[in-house]
Specification:
Radius of gyration of chain B: 21 Å
Oligomer: heterodimer
Number of helices of chain B: 14
Helix content of chain B: over 70%
Structural class of chain A: alpha/beta
Order of helices and strands of chain A: HEHEHHEEHEHHEHEHEHEHHHHEHEEEH
CATH architecture of chain B: Orthogonal Bundle
CATH architecture of the largest domain in chain A: 3-Layer(aba) Sandwich
Largest sheet of chain A: 7 strands, mixed
Helix content of chain A: 40-55%
Number of strands of chain A: 13
Strand content of chain A: 5-15%
Number of strands of chain B: 2
CATH superfamily of the largest domain in chain A: Response regulator
Distance between the termini of chain B: 52 Å
CATH topology of chain B: ABC transporter involved in vitamin B12 uptake, BtuC
Number of helices of chain A: 16
Radius of gyration of chain A: 22 Å
Largest interface: A-B, 43 and 41 residues
Shape of chain A: globular
CATH class of the largest domain in chain A: Alpha Beta
Shape of chain B: globular
CATH class of chain B: Mainly Alpha
Order of helices and strands of chain B: HHHHHHEEHHHHHHHH
Chain lengths: 432, 319
């Protein structure tokens, strides 16, 4: 055999071997943001996600006996880079985890063509709840509109009517993510007679919010609701302390519940609250498994303090949702090596009962929920967390959003989206 | 008519109706302006001495602040960590001169500018590898920066001055005065100014280009450290601080790239005017978030009438 022929043969064998190796894994890329201005939020979440998958690989050999390839593609929370990552990973991926509402909105139309499910736990476009319209998009266990409703419900003491005549400032990142709850808040303001005061924070002003907090001092709102991300949260909390705004009237979304953000002000931040669909529980059995198989084995990127905090443990819950979707898909289709389309079926049939949560070792970290063909969110509800000066502690029972109020808006905005992006495929056969 | 009234009458009525609030707005603008001026100063110094627009100035702020916090986290006392950070910034200045600038002597300006983009990427990558991307608490208390606030009651109202902001303002003023004294009265300072005026003439009289470049990059590093401490003590130390450097661009356009006075006056003007505009016009009329663009519009208006900026040198060339 001539040398060139030998080389070509060797190349072909290597390519076949690589192909076979690639087939023996579940490729679930994560469009991570460990760098840039939002890294402070991203790092603990990504670490939690990664460690859960590493634990499954080490303890169970993956899911259904197939190892999970949890590769990260760094976006820096930048929409253009996110789309590049999506394009780069989509050929082999069975799921895309875009990690930004801006990226989600960009890849949303593409997934209909590429037939890859988007998994955006607790973020993304709220009307993605409507599985008939958004067949490939999932945002369990709670949407931003659920979060906004639950915050108002909690602030009103359970009766939104009591907010009549009140003024509520909505401090938000001037970005698709920050604007996401506005349609619901505007509707609720009109329905219940409170004044909504949107206060945007530009990307370049995230660390210099004195103008926004001067506006809050001038307007004296009864409550401030914050939809912040990354460095914006710590700066807002520091400005609130500086402005002497009462902390017990200041509430953030779940991405504004990072321990590091509050450590800047420590005791002075006491009373600040944030809604959260996950709870930190260092005693949960899954945490012991992660310690044994990942942390103690030296495979984790997380620091010792980070492991006990809200964001790291939320990352674990996020990966647990994906892993369960994969497992359900494997069961439904009778194969361990599932495709993207099969995973879509799994994500549409999630059933996190309390028993299943306990089986997975996630006791006390999340609330039960289930998804369906029509409901891609599941609406688990959420708890209010409160900063006690050193850490976040649970400050309410499980809250629920009123879907009778939210569902019509979801249907309206989903229909608007489909019309604006026509021809848009809608699954008319889907009944719930 | 209603619109005209909202633009021309109501804002001023609000200012006179609540003078204590107006004073608070101006104070906040001054504090922001001083911090913008500090970042702009770093750009100006390097541009004067080497005609390089240093794209890396923003990341130098982050890198210096991270080094300070990182060294303290390793167990060094705060002031030892501060001295250690100065040493690191000096080492960085030497490395940049030896490895980046010296090999590029005589190359077009755009090549040197691209080299500073390269420096930015190296500092971002190495900073993230060494210190991580998490938000960190600035060691303000350990450095003796006071906390708490002073309450004043002008015109029967109230005004809050953060002790930290007062310290930052005082420190920035002292540093600028020191810098001006250094540039005007020391031998090395005059050498920097000479290089700014005419490179070839300065070199022909024996001024060492290498030594001056190391010096200006080191001074820019000191300014970056001070800026990092000031911003970091307000909102934590993270890579988001790099974005704030973008605010120095309109300051440079307004004040002129070569002028230290321009950087200071430009910074203060933009700090105060953008705050006044945001509070009295931007928020009520435009829904807020005008600070993202106001400074650029102001700088563009100035450039229409003075293309060299308020304090830049007018270049007259014979054709």
């Amino acid at each position: 055999m001539r040398p060139w022929t030998r080389l070509a043969l060797a190349g072909a064998v290597a390519a076949m071997a690589a192909g076979a190796a690639a087939a023996q894994e579940l490729y679930t890329p994560n469009l991570s943001y460990r760098t840039g201005p939002f890294a402070a939020t991203g790092i603990p979440l990504m670490n939690g996600q990664r460690d859960y998958m590493l634990m499954l690989n080490a303890r169970d050999g993956g899911i259904g006996g197939i190892p999970v390839n949890f590769e990260e593609c760094e976006t820096g929370y930048n929409t253009e880079k996110g789309v590049e990552c999506y394009e780069k990973t989509k050929a082999q991926a069975i799921v895309t985890q875009p990690w930004s509402t801006g990226i989600t909105l960009q890849v949303l139309p593409k997934t209909n063509v590429d037939q890859i499910p988007i998994l955006a736990p607790g973020y993304g476009f709220s009307p993605m709840t409507d599985g008939r319209t958004f067949q490939w998009a999932f945002n369990p266990p709670a949407s931003y509109w659920d979060g906004a409703y639950m915050i108002l419900h909690h602030l009103s003491g359970g009766d939104l009517g009591t907010l009549s005549g009140k003024k509520i400032a909505f401090l938000h990142l001037d970005h698709p993510y920050g604007k996401e709850p506005l349609p619901l808040l505007e509707k609720l303001a009109a329905d219940h007679g409170f004044t909504l005061l949107p206060i945007p924070v530009g990307l370049t002003e995230m660390q210099n919010q004195s103008a926004q907090w001067l506006q809050i001092r001038r307007e004296q709102p009864d409550f401030v609701i914050m939809w912040g991300w990354g460095a914006m949260n710590a700066a807002a909390i520091a400005e609130a302390v500086k402005t002497r705004y009462p902390m017990n009237q200041f509430v953030g979304v779940w991405w504004a519940s990072h321990t590091d953000d509050l450590q800047l002000v420590g005791e002075a931040g006491k009373g600040y609250r944030a809604i959260s669909w996950s709870l930190p529980n260092p005693e949960a059995p899954v945490m012991a498994a992660i310690r044994e198989h990942v942390i103690d084995a030296g495979k984790s990127l997380a620091s010792a303090e980070e492991v006990g905090e809200v964001f790291y443990q939320r990352g674990i819950v996020i990966s647990a949702i994906l892993a369960e979707g994969i497992r359900v898909a494997q069961e439904m289709h009778g194969t361990a090596q599932i495709t993207a389309a099969q995973l879509r079926d799994g994500l549409e049939n999630l059933d996190f009962t309390q028993e299943r949560i306990d089986e997975l070792g996630l006791t006390g970290m999340m609330a039960p929920f289930s998804t369906s063909c029509a409901d891609h969110t599941g609406h688990s509800g959420a708890w209010m967390l409160e900063w006690d000066g050193t850490q976040f502690v649970q400050a309410s029972d499980l809250l629920q959003a009123d879907q009778a109020v939210i569902a019509p808006l979801v249907a309206e905005k989903a229909a608007e989206y489909a019309a604006a992006n026509a021809p848009w495929p809608v699954n008319e056969a889907c009944e719930g | 008519m209603e619109l005209l009234q909202r633009i021309l009458v109501r804002p001023f009525a609000e200012m006179f109706g609540a003078p204590d609030f107006l004073m608070q707005v101006i104070w906040e603008g001054l504090v922001s302006g001083i911090l913008y001026a500090l970042i702009a100063l770093g750009f100006v110094l390097i541009f004067r001495a080497s005609r390089i627009f240093n794209f890396a100035q923003g990341i130098m702020v982050v890198f210096a602040a991270l080094t300070l916090v990182g060294l303290h986290a390793m167990g060094l006392p705060a002031w030892v960590a501060f001295a250690g950070t100065l040493a690191v910034m000096f080492g960085l200045a030497v490395a940049i001169e030896r490895l980046v600038l010296r090999p590029l002597i005589g190359q077009p300006d755009i090549v040197l500018f691209m080299a500073t983009i390269g420096i930015t990427l190296i500092l971002v990558g190495s900073g993230e590898i060494i210190f991580g991307g998490e938000n960190k608490v600035m060691i303000a208390r350990e450095l003796g920066i006071p906390s708490g606030s002073v309450e004043l009651n002008p015109f029967g109202g109230f005004m809050l001055l953060e002790a930290r902001d007062i310290t930052v303002v005082a420190g920035a003023v002292a540093m600028v005065l020191g810098l001006l004294a250094f540039l005007n009265y020391s031998r090395m300072g005059r050498a920097i100014r000479a290089l700014g005026d005419d490179h070839q003439a300065a070199v022909s009289v024996g001024i060492s280009l290498s030594a001056i470049w190391v010096l200006v990059w080191f001074v820019a590093g000191i300014i970056a450290l001070m800026t990092g401490i000031a911003w970091g003590s307000r909102a934590g130390v993270s890579f988001a601080l790099e974005i704030i450097a973008l605010k120095a661009l309109p300051v440079l356009m307004l004040g002129g790239l070569e002028s230290i006075t321009g950087a200071i006056v430009g910074g203060l003007l933009i700090g105060v005017l953008e705050k006044l505009f945001e509070i009295y016009w931007g928020q009520p009329l435009l829904g807020g978030s005008t600070e993202a663009w106001f400074a650029y519009v102001l700088a563009l208006i100035v450039l229409l009438f003075r293309p060299q900026g308020l304090f830049g040198e007018r270049i007259i060339e014979r054709v």
